[in-house]
Structures are given as C-alpha cells and as structure tokens.
Write a structure and sequence with these properties.
mainly alpha; 7 helices; globular; 242 residues; single chain
Length: 242
C-alpha cells in the first residue's frame, strides 16, 4: 500500500472493491462519522436529507428503487449492500497489499446518492496491519451503522449481523473467483482464513451455518416485489405473508 498511495490496484478486482482517495471533486460530503451520528429522519427537502441524514436518505432511496413499502425491508437491503462494500474494500486491500487501509469513519466521506465506486472517498490513506480488519470494518462501521439504523427504524440486530456475515462471505467468494481467474489462488485461501477468524467474533458467531454457510436469519429480500430467495437464505421457499 505504501507503493500505491492512491489504492489504484484495487481497480483490478472490480468496481465494488475500488475506493476513491482524496477530497470529493464536487465539494465536501458528510463523513461516515457524521452519518452514523445523525438522527433527524424528518428532513422534508430531499437535497438536504442526503447531507442531514445520509443513512435515512439511502434507505428511502432503496425503498423507492425496489418499490418496497416496508421500512425494515429497505433498511435491510441498504445495510446489506453497504456492509458488502466495506468488506470488499478491506478484503481486497489485504489480498493485494497484505495491509488494510484505515477506514476511520472520520476519514471517509459518503455520497449517499451515488453508487460504487464513486460514493466513498478516503481523504487520507493510512496503512494498518491486515489482522486489524475486524477492528476496521466491524467495530469502526458495522457497530455504529447498526446502532444508527436501529435507533430510527424497526430492524433487528440479529438480522443486521446476519447481513454482515453474508456480505463478508459474498466478498470472499468474489475474491476467490478473481484469484482462480488470475492465477492467484492464494487470494481466496487468505480471504477464507480471514473470514473464519472474523466469524468467530461474538457479534458474528452463529450467524451462518458452519458447514453450508447458509444464514440463520433472513435479509427480507423475498418481500421485495418480484424478489426471491438469496443463495444463502435460511429458507427453502419464501414464507407466506401474514
């Protein structure tokens, strides 16, 4: 990472792994620390909402795009995507640099109205040992993100940690496929080993079946109009609606 301060190597892994560096080109954006602390969910002006409460803006944007009226479903889908983005960046960096970038929420600026790879901007690149990946992603982001969501929307902690585990294994799978395609099979092996350590943490332990890696909670994707079951869903068929 010291030889690639712009993290440009991540582009080889695909857009979902890319992390922009420096200041956002179109002016200042809220930091993720500010987003996690925001609690004003009643901003009437959508243009202000993306700055005043980026998390609620993202959830409402997801709800509009997938046409789901249930706030907890939109919150879960938004959370799952964001958790996958964070795990991908961190695991991708470990795969390429054997280091993880310091993703301190005060250093990451977030455009909640944008999509990967242009929604996150790391204003200062700092390198940390790879074994601090749990501290960087889980403690630095997933804990405060879950707290912010649960303070404002009816979504369970068990569901959110299931999302986090599912997102982690999704990132591992993408890296494994990239490694096989590019003659770097050690990338997938390293990612799986890291994932096993991460899944042993009390917050994530028990969220997945240890053999099949199927979830023990549901992300609620089946409740989206036209949605079905995810590949790691805990259900064999969509539950009946009540």
């Amino acid at each position: 990472m010291e030889h690639d301060p712009g993290l440009t190597g991540l582009t080889t892994l695909g857009g979902f792994f890319v992390l922009r560096t420096g200041e956002p080109p179109n002016g200042p954006l809220p930091t993720l620390a500010e987003a996690y602390a925001a609690r004003d969910a009643d901003v009437e002006d959508e243009r202000r909402e993306v700055y005043a409460n980026p998390i609620i803006f993202r959830v409402r944007d997801v709800a509009r795009r997938v046409r789901v009226p249930e706030p907890r479903v939109a919150a879960s889908i938004a959370h799952l995507g964001f958790a996958a983005r964070l795990w991908s960046i961190a695991l991708g960096a470990v795969a390429l640099y054997d280091r993880v970038p310091d993703l301190d929420p005060r250093l990451l600026r977030w455009d909640a109205a944008a999509s990967a790879p242009d929604e996150l901007w790391l204003t200062e690149v700092r390198s940390l040992p790879a074994d601090r990946i749990g501290e960087v992603v889980r403690d630095g982001h997933l804990v405060p993100l879950a707290a912010a969501l649960r303070a404002q929307l009816p979504v369970s902690a068990r569901l959110l940690w299931g999302n986090a585990a599912s997102a982690l294994m999704g990132a591992v799978g993408r890296l494994d496929r990239w490694g096989h395609t590019n003659g770097r099979t050690e990338v997938g092996s390293r990612a799986r080993a890291l994932a096993a350590e991460l899944l042993a943490h009390p917050d994530l332990s028990g969220t997945l079946d240890p053999v099949t890696y199927r979830r023990r909670s549901c992300c609620l994707y089946y409740r989206i109009p036209g949605g079905g079951l995810c590949g790691d869903c805990c259900f064999d068929r969509p539950p009946g609606r009540t």
